[in-house]
Amino acid sequence: MNAPTHNLTHIQARMIAACGRAGRAPDSVRLVAVSKTRTPEEIRSVATLGQVLFAENRVQEARDKIPLVAAAGLEWHLIGPLQRNKVKTALQFFQMIHSVDSIELAREIAHRSNPTAPFPVLMQVNIGCEPQKSGVLPNEAQALAQAILTLPGIALRGLMTIPPWSAEAEAARPWFQALAQLRDQLMAAGIPAHALQELSMGMSNDFEVAIEEGATLVRIGSAVFAPA
Questions:
Q1: Are 160 and 99 in contact (CB under 8 A)?
Q2: Does the residue 228 lie in any domain?
Q3: If pLDDT is split at 50, 70 and 90, which confidence band does 227 have?
Q4: C-alpha of 111 from chain center
Q5: Residue 122: strand pairing partners
Q6: Which of 23, 25, 46, 121 is the most exposed place for a label (fewest CB within 10 A)?
Q7: Residues in contact with 158: Cβ distance below 8 Å, sequence separation at least 6, in sequence order
Q8: Global pTM value
Q9: Distances in Å between the alpha carbon of 5 and those of 27, 120, 179, 211?
Q10: Residue ranges making up the domain that contains 213
């Protein structure tokens, strides 16, 4: 069994086990293979194993890379920060953006999108209120969500977060719980459930904890791909 096969099989087994511990169906969470810095050949190698959902952090890297693996029929998400001047390009290559954190960015996406086919996005929340990180602050999330819902051409589909870093996976649990609680608070405030169906949280070192706390999308890079 080669490295990508072993990695993917192992991750899938861990995801199923985490779903079992949380009393969730295995198909309630999807693996997002983060392919930043990976070559088209590496991506194709993982895609041949049945992985179809991939993510990039930078629009320019994606623009150069995605056409080289287009024949694989993959789904691409943007998980890194997005500048408004790169929205037009991003919409050409991605099927979802995880990093909407301002009304200005949301308006640009709406302006560049087809009103009859709204572009799906997640609202990035700076759950730890870290000054160096992107994301709307939790106490401003309701206002931003409500504003996004008024725009044609953009469809809010959930929340994304990157918790404060820790080497210990368990340290992320309170932050994942906080994002799930924020989702519940937004729903109680009148944000419709279809706009909050996704929770994008958890990476290579803590995805099992994220699944236990309700993640529907886990963003895993280094644990999927063979060592560079």
A1: yes
A2: no
A3: low
A4: 22
A5: 158
A6: 23
A7: 122, 123, 183, 195, 196, 197, 198, 199, 200, 216
A8: 0.95
A9: 20, 31, 32, 22
A10: 3-220
Q: What is the domain-level CATH number for residue 177? A: 3.20.20.10
- What's the CA gap between 139 and 195, in Å, rounded? 18
Judge whether 227 lies within some domain: no
In a domain, 225, yes or no: no
Three-state DSSP class for residue 29: coil
For residue range 169-217, list pLDDT tens digits in order: 999 999 999 999 999 999 999 999 999 999 999 999 999 999 999 999 9
Count of domains in the chain?
A: 1
Q: Residue 3: CB partners within 8 Å, gap ≥ 6?
A: 226, 227
Whether the CB-CB separation of 214 and 197 falls below 8 Å is answered with no
Instruction: Compute φ and ψ for 99, nearest 5 degrees.
Output: -120, 35
Q: Residue 6's pLDDT is what?
A: 78
Residue 189: both structure tokens together: 């405030």
Query: For residue 78, is pLDDT > 70?
Result: yes
- Is residue 55 within 8 A of residue 76, CB to CB? The reply is yes
2-53 per-position pLDDT tens digit:
667 779 999 999 999 999 999 999 999 999 999 999 999 999 999 999 999 9
CA nearest 219: which of 128, 90, 96?
96
Measured distance CA(161)–CA(134) in Å, rounded: 9
The answer to whether position 226 is within a domain reads no
What pLDDT is attached to residue 2? Answer: 64
User: Which CA distances in Å does 169 have to 52, 139, 166, 206?
Assistant: 26, 25, 7, 5
